[in-house]
Amino acid sequence: MVMPEEAVPYAERREEEELTSSRILPPELAEEEIVVETRGLSFYYDDHQVLHDLWIKFPKNRITAIIGPSGCGKSTLIRCLNRMNDVVAGARIEGEVLVEGVNIYRPEVEVETLRRRVGMVFQKPNPFPMSIWENVSFGPRISGIRDRAKLDEIVEWALRQAHLWDEVKDRLDDNAMELSGGQQQRLCIARCLANRPEIILFDEPASALDPISTARLEETILELAKDYTCIIVTHNMQEAARISDYTAFLYMGRLIEFNTTSQLFKKPREARTEAYITGRFG
């Protein structure tokens, strides 16, 4: 799947495309520290192209929402940001994905290390069928930490960060599958945090939750953005408007508009963006 840099077809037109992308991306990004960036990113399943030449910048310690109708490539895009698509047969990319200036598709990049740095929370909660403590400590134990006191410290810290500690501190030995859906999703966030990521990807994390659980999850993500770069795929435009700093609108695998969330929702530049956010399609 990884293509050598000399084979990347966009290379000869990079300067022209960067100028084009600068007209699409909001000027506010010039004041931000960019930690994730796609340059001419295209993605294919065999001969089917899903993403088309995406140039997007994700700023540090901000929440960036990715919106768009079903099938527009939102989940595929964020799975490119930590190489989750590597396991899909027939998947291939063109272009680059940079994390702190390094192309993560270079052959020497260790995927396991990358995925610790760029954690992911999925659409449906996926706790392991083991205790709450074992779930949160799983990553650190796999990484070689054996000291129980140190593991206890990590578990408490991660659960506090995920706003779950007070609810489960007296039941750490209980099976995680006994938690409510909202608690399970915050547990998955804690499990991700225990690996000390720098960036967290959220793939529609509230889609299976009730309104109360959704509100608690959104509160958690807002707090996390003080220390982490958060990128969230969501079908819920109200959610994007509530919690994100920037919003990207994708349609049929193409970036239609990317702006500060307030500007994109109040005064979209593109007719297709306005049609989508006002519910005329999608």
Write the layout of secondary structure elements.
Layout: H1 14-24, E1 34-45, E2 48-59, E3 63-67, H2 74-80, E4 91-99, E5 102-103, H3 111-117, E6 118-121, H4 132-142, H5 148-161, H6 165-168, H7 181-193, E7 199-203, H8 211-224, E8 229-233, H9 237-243, E9 246-251, E10 254-260, H10 261-266, H11 271-277
Helix pairs in contact: 4-5, 4-7, 5-7, 7-8
Q: Class by helix and strand content?
A: alpha/beta
Number of H/I helices: 11
Strand arrangement across the biggest beta sheet:
6-7-8-3-9-10
Largest sheet: 6 strands, mixed
Shape field: globular
Strand fraction: 15-25%
Rounded mean pLDDT is 91
Q: State the helical fraction.
A: 25-40%
Total strands: the figure is: 10
CA-CA gap between termini: 31 Å
Radius of gyration: 19 Å
Low-confidence stretches: 1-10
Describe this structure in words.
- The structure is a single chain.
- By secondary structure, the chain is of the alpha/beta class.
- The protein is about 35% helix and about 25% strand.
- The strands form two sheets. It has a six-stranded mixed β-sheet with strand order 6-7-8-3-9-10, sandwiched between helices.
- Helix 4 (about 130-140) packs parallel to helix 7 and helix 7 packs parallel to helix 8.
- The model is unreliable at about 1-10 (pLDDT under 50).
